[in-house]
Amino acid sequence: LDPIFIQSVDLLASEASNPSNEENQIYYNQFIETFGTHYVSRIIVGGTAHLYTLMDQSYYKESSYEERTSQVSLMFQYKQYNGQIGSNSNEIWASMKEKFRTTSSTLSIFRPPVASKENKSDWETWQNVAGNYPVVINRTLFSIHDLIKDKPTVREHLRKTIEFYLQKGVMPTLAELNGQSKSRNSLISPKPQGSIIGLDVVGCGYDPLLLESKYCIFDQSNFTENEPWSDPYNKTLMYSIPNGWFAVNTPESLTLDGSILVTSVEDYFRQTRTVTVRKSGGFIGIGQKRIQRTVTEFYRRFYQDYYNLVLRMKQMGWYTLSVSAFPYPKLNPTAQVAFDNLPTHFDVKDLKIWQDFFDIFGTHVVVSSNMGGQVWAETWYEKCLTYEHTQTWIDEQVTTNWLFFISSR
After folding, report:
1. Which helix (H) or strand (E) holds 9?
2. How much of the chain is in helix, strand and coil states, percent to nearest 5?
3. CA 156, 161, 162, 166 torsion-angle sign
4. Distance between CA 362 and CA 375 in Å, rounded?
5. DSSP string, 93-151
6. Alpha-carbon gap, residue 237 to 241, rounded angstroms
């Protein structure tokens, strides 16, 4: 076992082996917050692909279960082959009912994620790369209290604490564990905490050149149709979703470690040559002296660079927030006025109104976003001077004219 885990168990045994007050119980709660309730004994790696089909309420009510199942199956086949050369995707599309095609929308989530490729469906691309970049799709868990073999009192109290936490969703007090206090039975708050996180991105404008979110376009004021959404990691937290938006739980965790060493060479040199000429003395050219001084300087630096990139990326995914593709939510009042004021004909001489519009709303709208958190990248840079050389050469030439003779030295 890990030394830190062993030390933590020893601390429970020495400070709170048989808990008698709430301070003792805090040790067990903190132990679970640090190490969790279970440990992973086995994992299955591979890939997963989910296709979510969202149906219009009117179609759902008027269609039978068998019809809906058949239509969803056809949609799945269409998504499998769409974009492939020689596929019968057009025939599959035509075989679906008109109302289903026009009132439903789909959302595909692949693990590992894939980038769209020409003449290949996302499904085919995912099948080709899933084996090269597998992700964890299944875990076998055992309760962490089973690891404590030689401290039965600590083991038993930790088991009770874990069971309470899993049943209630909150850490217990000692009184609750002993049945002396009314348990907190409610896992979900009766009222949402507020609007779901991500509404400042999804349904808003975006400038892909500046990588900036812009002013929101769709109306977020009506929350009458959607059920509250609960956090997949903490069921006690609930959030409201406006009409026209939907959230799909996509909890995932990804950790990536890597180290890269790049070596490069830089050679710098500078050469300067200075020539100075002086003339003196002599009469009508007799006895005249000419001095020419040439100074050549050479400087060189030789570097060898070491770039050390140590990367540790931790990514946590919570959910995918999207807007309905058909029909789209209605525009908010500000966006509606802006669209109404746009000219119906494009005039190349009047670009300011378009520039102002793009500055406010961007050029695109975000219709879906994976929500979560990511921490990554630490970089160290070291530069080493391995060689430096300086040279100075001086060449001085003196010439004297004696009528018929010229002497130099």
Report:
1. helix 3-16
2. 30, 40, 30
3. positive
4. 28
5. HHHS-HHHHHH-EEEEEEES----BTTB-HHHHHHHHTTTS-EEEEEEEEEGGGG--S-
6. 13
Q: Which of 120, 79, 119, 115 is nearest to 96 (CA)?
A: 79
Using DSSP bridges, classify how beta strands 135-143 and 38-46 pair: parallel, antiparallel or unpaired: antiparallel
Amino acid identity for residue 215 in this structure? Y
Looking up tokens 């970089």 gives: 379
pLDDT tens per residue, the chain (409 residues)?
788 888 888 988 888 888 888 888 888 988 988 888 898 888 888 888 887 787 877 888 888 888 888 888 888 888 777 655 556 777 888 888 888 888 888 878 888 887 777 777 777 888 888 888 888 888 888 888 988 888 889 899 999 999 888 888 788 888 888 876 555 554 444 466 788 888 889 999 999 888 888 999 998 888 877 778 887 777 777 888 888 888 888 777 776 666 656 566 666 777 788 878 777 766 555 667 777 788 888 777 766 665 565 666 777 788 888 888 777 788 888 899 999 988 888 888 888 888 889 999 999 999 889 888 777 665 555 556 566 778 777 777 766 665 555 555 5
| Structure-token pair, residue 244 | 């026209």
Q: Helices 333-340 and 352-361, interaxial angle, to 10°?
A: 160
Note whether 105 and 325 are within 8 A (CB). Answer: yes
The first and second tokens of residue 40, run together, are 């992973």
Task: Give me 321's structure tokens.
Answer: 């927030």
Q: What is the SS3 assignment for 147?
A: helix
Q: Bridge-partner residues for 54, per DSSP?
A: 105
The structure tokens 């060449």 sit at: 395
How far apart CA 161 and CA 405 sit, in angstroms, is 113
Q: How far apart are CA 368 and CA 248, in angstroms?
A: 11
Q: What is the per-residue DSSP string for 315-355?
A: EEEEEEEEE-SSSPPPBPHHHHHHHHTS-SS--TT--HHHH
130 to 69, 127, 138, 158, 319: CA distances (angstroms): 27, 6, 15, 40, 21
CA distances from 143 to 35, 38, 146, 156, 236 (A): 11, 4, 6, 12, 23
